[in-house]
Specification:
By secondary structure, the protein is of the alpha+beta class. The protein has five helices and four strands. The chain is about 55% helix and about 20% strand.
Length: about 150
């Protein structure tokens, strides 16, 4: 009996991870299509997905959604939250909502960055591995800054 309970727990976790992965895929697809491409960040989808994944939230959602999908016996109770989450993430495929999600998750407003020669004030559009895509208030345009050139 104990083995069956353990197998069901593993099944719930894996099911939750799959569901969460699919939801994340569409969330980041909408952000990629309508935010990063809008600003011409020049990043691949898989890098965007991996670098901006909140792993704590991912595992919490995996456990929660896995529990709902495997352990909850009432199919109406289990399917409603899954459909609502699917609908919310699919909404990012619409231009305005995908842009808004990207702005909420990725943009840092009113940031100040300093290099040896300049101080930049503006919005961080995307903070990448080696580069920062930045909207400078003074220059009134989008610039790309190398992280190695910035002072900490």
């Amino acid at each position: 009996m104990e083995k069956i309970a353990m197998n069901k727990a593993i099944q719930a976790l894996l099911t939750g991870m799959l569901i969460t992965f699919v939801l994340d895929f569409f969330l980041f697809l909408g952000i990629f299509l309508h935010y990063t491409e809008h600003y011409e960040v020049g990043i691949y989808y898989n890098v965007l997905f991996a670098d901006n994944q909140n792993w704590y939230l991912y595992f919490i959602l995996s456990i929660l959604l896995g529990y709902i999908s495997v352990y909850v016996k009432n199919s109406k109770v289990s399917i409603i939250p899954l459909l609502l989450l699917a609908l919310l993430t699919l909404l990012t495929l619409f231009k305005d909502i995908g842009y808004m999600a990207g702005e909420t998750i990725l943009m840092k407003k009113n940031a100040t960055l300093k290099s040896a020669k300049h101080t930049y004030t503006g919005d961080i559009i995307y903070d990448g591995r080696e580069k920062i895509t930045f909207y400078s208030y003074n220059l009134e345009k989008i610039i790309t800054l190398q992280k190695k050139d910035l002072l900490k």
